[in-house]
Amino acid sequence: MEKDAALEAMARFLSDTSANTKQITFLKLIVDQLTQDGAMSDARLYESPFIDLASTGPTAIFPIAKV
């Protein structure tokens, strides 16, 4: 995935809310992963480096409806 496309998707994801620093950092990790590998499985969100930031993955820092 192109970095610009990943950043645009991140901006759309955040458009209806104000994100905190931890959420933005988590999303940047996703962008990095997508631009490096082109895709990623949902399970990857529950592995390092994601759990290094939020020990239980995205559910620790995002509302369940967003996850």
Question: Summary?
Answer:
With about 70 residues, the protein is mostly helical. It has helices at about 5-15, 20-35, 50-55.
Low-confidence stretches: none
The percent of residues in helical segments reads 40-55%
Rg from alpha-carbon coordinates = 11 Å
Overall 3D shape: globular
Oligomeric state of shown chains: single chain
Mean pLDDT: 86
Strands, count: 0
Tally of individual helices: 3
Major beta sheet summary: none
End-to-end distance, in Å?
A: 20 Å
Summarize the helix and strand pattern as letters. HHH
Strand percentage: under 5%
What structural category characterises the helix and strand content? mainly alpha
Give structural notes.
By secondary structure, the protein is mostly helical. It has helices spanning 3-14, 21-37, 50-53. It is globular, with a radius of gyration of 11 Å. The relative contact order is 0.16. The model has no long low-confidence stretch (mean pLDDT 86).
Task: Note the main attributes of this structure.
67 residues; mainly alpha; 3 helices; 49% helix; globular
Show the helix and strand layout.
Blueprint: H1 3-14, H2 21-37, H3 50-53
